[in-house]
Design a protein that fits this description.
The protein is α+β, with helices and mostly antiparallel strands. 32% of the residues lie in helices and 32% in strands.
Length: 155
């Protein structure tokens, strides 16, 4: 399977929302799952992120199968807003490819630190790409989860 990584365009938004919904509903449980089902606005990509070039997507055979989005949070910091892969494509290296594309773009923009609020199931992945836990943060849906950070290196 050949996977292409590119920046998202506005006409990709519905496909991005679909990926986010499928991935989120596959991992969440309990109160968080109930809230996601009752409050679908949590499962929509902010169009401003797309317009600002802050969404990188993965596609296979022209179908969007994953994406990562980020927010610039100061002169030299960014936050990984979200990373979602369609469940049928999990554990194929797509998240790593997406993160490396985001990292490359952030370095190009001279960002030195990236942070992510990571659900417990995602912590091993983020550790594998160089993040460390630096604290905890309460999410908009309620749970307190690890806050992770990675220093970005310039060549």
């Amino acid at each position: 399977m050949a996977v292409a990584i590119r920046f998202a365009h506005n006409d990709d938004r519905q496909a991005l929302n679909d990926v986010m919904r499928h991935a989120s509903l596959a991992v969440e449980t309990g109160e968080v799952l109930r809230r996601l089902e009752e409050e679908p606005a949590h499962l929509q990509v902010d169009p401003a992120l797309i317009a600002n070039g802050n969404v990188v997507l993965a596609e296979a055979d022209g179908v969007v199968i994953g994406f990562a989005s980020f927010v610039i949070a100061g002169n030299d910091h960014a936050e990984l807003e979200g990373m979602f892969i369609t469940p049928a494509y999990w554990r194929r290296g797509i998240a790593t490819d997406l993160f490396l594309a985001v990292e490359q773009e952030l370095v190009r923009r001279q960002i030195t630190v990236i942070r992510v609020v990571a659900g417990d199931s995602a912590v091993p992945f983020y550790r594998s790409v160089g993040f460390v836990i630096v604290g905890e943060e309460q999410t908009p849906l309620g749970p307190v989860v690890p806050m992770m950070e990675k220093a970005l290196l310039f060549e």
